[in-house]
Structures are given as C-alpha cells and as structure tokens.
Amino acid sequence: MQAIEASETQPLLRLPIFEDANRRALARMVPKLSERSYAAGELLFTFGEPAETLYFIRSGQVEMRSGRRCTDTIETGFTGEEAAVGAHRYLAEAICTEPTEVYTFPAEAVRELLDCSPGIRGQFYQSLINHCTDQHPFELGPHGRAQDDDKDNHIHSVGSALGWLLALVAPALVYWLSMENSDLPWASVNFLTIFSAAVVMWVFRLVPEYIPALFIVMAVIVLGLVPNDVILSGYASGSFFMALSVFGIGAVLVQSGFTYRLALWILRATPPSSFWYNQAMFLVGFLLTPILPSANGRSALVAPLLTDILGVLGYRRGGRAATAMAAAAFIGISLFSASFLTAKSVNFALFGLFPSQVKDQFTWGYWVFTSLVATGVLLVLYLLLAEVFFRRSEKANLSQDHLAAQLQIIGPMSGREWTAVAGVALFILGVMTSSLHKIAPPWIGLAILYILLTVGSISKKGFRTQIDWPFLLMLGGFVGLVKAMSYLGIDAWFAGHLAWVGNFMSGNFYLFSALLGVVIFVVRLVVPNSAAIILLASIFMPVAAAQGINPWVIAFIVILFSDGWFMPYQCSYYLLLVSRTEHDNLFDQRSLLHFTMITNLFRFAAVFASIPFWQYLGLL
Hints:
By secondary structure, the chain is an alpha+beta fold.
C-alpha cells in the first residue's frame, strides 16, 4: 500500500459523489488516501470482517459475493460502503477477478467527511443497496461489539471511592480544626469547610471541574456567608467576558475554516520534521503571550489550531507525537507568562503595587530584558525535556505535494475567513493599544463578538455549541471564590502565617527563593492563581523594598512560581485546552500532566540562574 500522488487526488475528489462535499473536509482526507494493487483471485475483504476501509475501484474488476451467489460486478466505483455508513462489518465478500488497482479510504476519514457533509451519506447507502444484500448493516457481527461510550465505571474504582470518603471527612476535619485552633469568624470557618470539600472533588476528579465551583457558589449563597453580589461577581467580571469573547472569536476562526488553512500554511513553511513542527506550534503560543493578556484566551485560540495541525499530520491519537505537539502548544502559551508585563492581567495588578520610581524604571522592554536569563533557561530546559520525554515518537508522514493539493482543494479565502481574520486583527490591535484608548481588553473582545454575532458570522446553534459554557461557569465560580476569600479576610489570615519566610530574604536569597517557591506551591493547592499572586506579592514586596531589593524581583518570582501546578483544577487554561480537544482524544493527558509537573523544577532553575544577573543590574 502506498500514498497517492497529489496530482492523482484531483480527479478522484471530483467524483460526482463528492460534488457537494465540504471542501475543507475533503482536504483533510487527502493525506489519508492510499493506492493498492491486487492480483486476480485476491480478496479485498470477506463477509463479517470489520468494516474499516472504503475502496474505489480504479481499474480491473471486483466481484461481490454473498454465500455462493454473485450479487454484483464492479469495474469502476465504490465498494466496502459499510465503512462509510457506520456498519460494523462487511456484508459480502469482494474478490478480484483480474488484476485490480484500488484507492483506499480509512473509515474514520470518511466518517469525518460525512459529519461535515451529511447529504453524501445517502449516496453511499444507495451504492451499498445496489450491491444487493439482505443483511442489515448495523447488526453486530462476530468481530464487533456494541460500546456504550457514555458508560463511566470510574465511580466504582478504589480511587473514586476514597475520594468521596475524603470529600465527607475532610470538611468535618477542617471545621473541627478551625474552630479549635484559630480565631477565624464563623463565616470564614464555614467557607473553608465548603472549600475543602470542593478541593477534594477537584483533586480526585470525582466530577467535572465546573461542578465543585457551582457547589461553592450554591453553598455560600444558601448559608449567607458573603453577600450574593460578592460570590456571583465572577459572572460579571472582565475575566468572564474576556473568555466568552475569545471563545466566540475562536468559533468564527474554526467554522470559517481559517484555522485549517493556517495549519496548512504553517506546515508548508516549516522544515519537514517532527521537531520543527512542534517548535512551530510552540512559537505560535509564545508569540501570543505578550500580545494577549490572558492564558485562557491564548488556550482558546491555540486549541483549534492544534487540532487541525494534528489532523493534517495524521499522528496517532493519544500517541507520543501528538502529546509532544500538545505539550509544545501548552508550554508556548503558559510557561513564559512572567517574562512579559502584558502576558497576564494580574501582571498589571502587581505593576500597580510598585512604587512610582519602580514603575518608571520597568517599562515593557525593561521587564523583558530583566527576565531574559530566566526566559532563556526555561526555553533550553523545555527543549531538552521534550527531546528526552518524547523520544521514539512516531515520525510525521507529510507530503508537500499533499499540502499543495489540500490548499488547492479549499481554494481562495472565503468571505467568512476574511471576517474571522479581521475580527482577530481588530481584537489584537485593540488589546495592544488599550493603554491609549483606555478600553479594557474584555470589553474590546465583547464589542468584536457583538459585531460577529450581528453580521451572522456565528449562528445561533454555533453560539450555543461552540462556546464552552461549562468552563465559563467554572471560571465565574473561581473569580467569585477569590472575591469571597478577600471579603472574609481569609487572604489576610494566610498572610499572617507566611510572614516568617521573609526573614530569609536578606541573609541568603537563594534559600529565600527556594522556600518561597515551596510555599507558593503549597498555597496554590487551595488558593487560585491570581489570588495567590496578589496575596504573596503584597506580603513580600514591602519587605523587599525595606531591605533594598527591587520589588520587581519579588513580583517576577511570585508570578513564575504561582503559574506552577500539579492538579488539573489548579490550572484553568489547561482545563480549557483539554475541554476543547478531548472529544477527539488528541493527546495523552496523563503524559502531558507528568511533563508539566517536571517543568515546575525549571522554575527554580530559572530563578537561581537569574540571581547573579539581577545582582549585576543592581536589583538585588
């Protein structure tokens, strides 16, 4: 079996059955087509065999047999349509009566085409019927067994049972310890009790991530621990509308087909190797970091591009190569958030805490300059880890001729694609110039989303299905959680118990940095990212200033370490990347989690390597 030359795909895809097919879906199918030769007497498939391939007879002759009876003879046309219509097995036997040349279409590729062009399915049904069979195509055969994809047995596992037990025990223990050993008021004790139950649900992944967030909101409202407008403030926050806007813009990019076209352009311009394909994906995320001040927003934009590039490359789903590319995309959007002032909105919040002379000193460019050593260390260590962690990955099987054929099939950019590109360009331009027009990025995004909805770039159905509403529910709950902790004074209570770390600042800054990193990782198990950054920076920046240490150094270290995480619930943009790709099972989540855990050590290395550089600059 060999791949089809790109020049041969054009007449094949111009067959009448493909006339009304979605052009992008046809282009996606090109790399998966193959050509094969059979001798007289060879079988294409047998009765009852799993229906995994659709065949097109290019030349020769194939006889369809049911039992001992010949039901049809094919000289040019399709056979094996069971693979296209979703049958579990072939309903007849196909034997070559003379030397035969065929094109083969994997069943998965054909079904993806039919999902985008459902009208074609009827033609394959008709073709199957014409081969004359009395078997029902959806009857389960000896090689197939019905699978219930929605069945979830995880609830019965030992880990899940332990998780639910802890979800009951932990709140009781937290309540008892808080009442016995702290001076926290009743409302704060109850909030920590509720929060501990949610943390257990997140750690053991007992339910989807948005459910514990809703549980916190519901319990706080029912018990009246804080005013409703505090706990519900997340659903009116800039973060919520920023994510909503980026989801909408991303939906237009995907539905218009521009992300697929962009994937083809990137792969065509990249040297043909898995390493460079991964670095191209990394570079996309890295370049978005200083432009888009939201890791969630970057994740929402990169996810569809990652899906399309993996589809074009044809990597095995869940394999090492696909996971390596997912890791490259995730590292690109997340690892360097401390290196740029404009990478996260919380960076601006810390900038606002600087004394006036430090604000004047740390322009956007100087922030980048002072973080150069850390950025370089993170980059080099990531490249080394990726090379070791994902070694022996499958090689990319990509033909430049196929890329050219795919671009030819999808044709010139459509009006919807131009609209999508204009929307993204306006959004990025608006974000980059927000300091001039004083309009916050979330409201720029919301205005562009409104325009896209008004001109019909997003349909009502698309707005309902393409927006990740469960993630938005979780995000709103997280923001409300942070506001509630501040309202109840829990953040100040944490601060009082962490002040001892500052005693090491003047004696040994290496030791102080290591202790601060460990403390931050522990705090991040229970405190969301932005809240942890503000909390810890507000504790240690004044101490640093009093000891002649530039507050920016503390801010940078806090941001860098706070972006580290161990459990999925700690990282909303990881959850977002997973939620936008998990229906395709693109990558191995466990391997990616292990990979990101190792990168937490890189954060220590980056800080330690930067200390001499900061001393040279007079920041320490």
